[in-house]
Design goal:
The complex is a heterodimer. Chain A is an alpha+beta fold. Chain A has helices at 3-9, 16-23, 26-29, 69-75, 81-88, 90-95, 104-121, 123-126, 130-165, 169-178, 185-197, and strands spanning 33-37, 41-45, 49-55, 61-68, 79-80, 99-100. Chain A has two domains: 3-128; 147-197, no CATH class. In chain A, strands 1, 2, 3, 4, 5 and 6 form a six-stranded antiparallel β-sheet that branches. Chain A is elongated, with a radius of gyration of 23 Å. Chain B is α/β, with parallel strands linked by helices. Chain B is 49% helix and 8% strand. Chain B has eight helices and five strands, in the order αααααβαβαβαββ. Chain B has a five-stranded mixed β-sheet, with helices on one face. The termini of chain B are far apart. The chains are: A alpha+beta, B alpha/beta. The A-B interface holds A 2-4, 7, 52, 54, 56-61, 63, 65, 76, 78-83, 86, 93-94, 96-98, 100, 102, 139-141, 143-145, 147-148, 151-152, 154-155 and B 120-123, 126, 128-129, 138, 140-141, 143-144, 146, 149, 171-179, 181, 188, 191-196, 199, 204.
Chain lengths: 198, 206
C-alpha cells in the first residue's frame, strides 16, 4: 500500500463527508439526491445536473464540480467554483483559491464557505439551466485563448523590448506584431516606430 | 648452285628466316615484333576467358529487380532480398514502418515518450481522462506539509520539462487550485507557452 492510499484511508477522521452532508443540505431543495458519500468525495445528482464536492486527496483543497449530466457523458465537462464565479465577476474569479483544510475544524470552515459560494454563484446551474452550461463551456474556451495570449505576451514582450533596445527594428516589429492584441500603449508606439525603421 | 634447306621454324616465322647477312642484321627488330604480337594474343585470350567467366556468373545469379541502378541501390535490394528471404524462412510477415507489424508494443514503443498531463486531481481521476500514452505525476504524499509537497511536485515537473515534450493541461479554466496554478507558473517562468486549441503546454523554442 502506497503512502497516498494510507493517507486516503486515514482521511475519515477529518469528517469531510459528514460536514458536507450538513452544509450542502440546501441541494435537496433543488431536487438533488445524495448519490455516494466517501471520505474525500460526496456526489449529488438531480435529473439534469451533478455536483461533486471533494477534498483533494493530495492537495487537501476543498472544491466543488458542477456539470450537466448529458454533457458529462459527451465531454466529461465539470465546472469548478472559479469558473462559476468568473461568469459573474472575472476579477473575483482570479482572486479565488480553493480552501485548504488539514484538520477537522478547517474542514468545517472550508466546506461551509464553499456551500455559501455555490449558493451565491451557482443558482441557475443548480436549476439545470442549459444556457448557463453553454456559457460555461464558451467561457472555458475563451479563458484558454486569453490565457494563451497572456502567456505568449509574458514570453515575447521582453524579447521584443530587447530587440527594440538593440535597434533591431525588423525583429522587434515581428515580435510585437505576434502579440499585438496584448500590447500596452507604449508598446504600440514602439511597434509603430519599429515598422517605420525596419 | 645448291639450294639451302629451309629451317622448320623459318617456315612458321618467315620474318625470322634470314637468308643473307642484311636480313640477319634486322633479326632483333623482328624478334621484338614477334614478342609484341605474342603478348597481344595472350592478352586477348585472357580477356576472353574473363568475359566468359563473368557471363557464366551472371547467368547463375537471381534476376535483379531494377536494372541500371546504382551500386548503393543494388546493395539495398540485395539486403531487402536477404531480409525477405530470412522472414520467409522464419514464417514472419514482412516488417513495415507504418506500425502494422507484429512487433510487440513494448518493443516498438521503447523509444516513444509518454505525455505528461497536469490538472486537478478530480479531473485526472475521472475514467478515461488520461488517453493512451499519457500519465500524471505521482509520488508519496507529504501533506499536510504543503511546502514539502510542492518541493517534490515541482522537482518532478522540472524533470519532465527537461524532456522538452508538450504537457497537457486537463483542467483549463480551473484557477482555484494552488498546486495547479503553481505548476502553470513554473512552466511560464521557464518559457513554456500555452496552446489554447489543444490545451498543450509547449516547450520554449531554443
Amino acid at each position: 500500500m502506497c503512502q497516498r492510499e494510507q493517507d486516503f484511508t486515514n482521511r475519515a477522521v477529518l469528517g469531510f463527508a459528514k460536514v458536507v452532508a450538513g452544509a450542502f443540505q440546501f441541494l435537496l431543495g433543488y431536487g438533488f439526491r445524495l448519490q455516494s458519500s466517501e471520505a474525500t468525495l460526496v456526489r449529488y445528482a438531480s435529473e439534469r445536473v451533478f455536483v461533486n464536492v471533494y477534498h483533494g486527496r493530495s492537495s487537501y483543497e476543498i472544491g466543488v464540480e458542477i456539470g450537466c449530466i448529458s454533457r458529462e457523458r459527451s465531454d466529461g465537462a465539470g465546472y469548478s467554483m472559479s469558473e462559476l464565479i468568473r461568469l459573474k465577476n472575472q476579477q473575483e474569479a482570479e482572486r479565488f483559491r480553493n480552501f485548504m483544510a488539514t484538520t477537522p475544524d478547517e474542514v468545517k470552515i472550508g466546506v461551509q464557505k464553499l456551500a455559501e459560494q455555490l449558493l451565491r454563484n451557482g443558482d441557475r446551474a443548480l436549476r439545470g439551466d442549459e444556457l448557463v452550461f453553454e456559457a460555461l463551456q464558451q467561457q472555458r474556451q475563451e479563458w484558454a485563448s486569453t490565457f494563451a495570449a497572456d502567456v505568449a505576451y509574458r514570453q515575447v514582450s521582453p524579447k521584443a523590448a530587447e530587440a527594440f533596445r538593440r535597434q533591431e527594428y525588423r525583429k522587434a516589429a515581428e515580435l510585437y506584431e505576434s502579440i499585438e492584441g496584448k500590447l500596452t500603449p507604449a508598446e504600440l508606439k514602439k511597434l509603430e516606430y519599429a515598422r517605420k525603421h525596419a | 648452285m645448291s639450294m639451302k634447306k629451309p629451317v622448320p621454324w623459318s617456315i612458321a616465322f618467315p620474318h625470322l628466316a634470314a637468308s643473307d647477312a642484311g636480313q640477319q642484321a634486322a633479326l632483333p627488330r623482328r624478334l621484338g615484333v614477334m614478342w609484341q604480337r605474342l603478348w597481344i594474343a595472350w592478352a586477348c585470350i585472357a580477356a576472353l576467358v574473363c568475359a566468359a567467366g563473368t557471363a557464366w556468373a551472371v547467368a547463375g545469379a537471381p534476376a535483379k529487380p531494377h536494372q541500371g541502378t546504382s551500386e548503393f541501390s543494388v546493395a539495398l535490394n540485395v539486403c531487402a532480398f536477404a531480409s525477405a528471404t530470412v522472414q520467409l524462412h522464419s514464417g514472419k510477415a514482412c516488417l513495415s514502418t507504418t506500425g502494422t507489424s507484429d512487433v510487440p508494443d513494448a518493443a516498438r514503443g521503447a523509444g516513444a515518450a509518454e505525455r505528461l498531463v497536469i490538472g486537478r486531481g478530480a479531473d485526472l481521476a475521472k475514467p478515461g481522462a488520461l488517453k493512451a500514452g499519457e500519465r500524471a505525476l505521482s509520488w508519496p504524499s507529504k501533506m499536510p506539509n504543503a511546502a514539502a509537497e510542492w518541493k517534490i511536485n515541482s522537482g518532478l515537473l522540472r524533470q519532465e520539462m527537461q524532456r522538452g515534450l508538450p504537457i497537457r493541461d486537463i483542467s483549463p479554466g480551473n484557477t482555484g487550485g494552488m498546486f495547479l496554478n503553481a505548476e502553470r507558473n513554473l512552466l511560464q517562468n521557464h518559457g513554456w507557452t500555452f496552446d489554447a486549441s489543444t490545451s498543450l503546454w509547449m516547450p520554449p523554442v531554443p
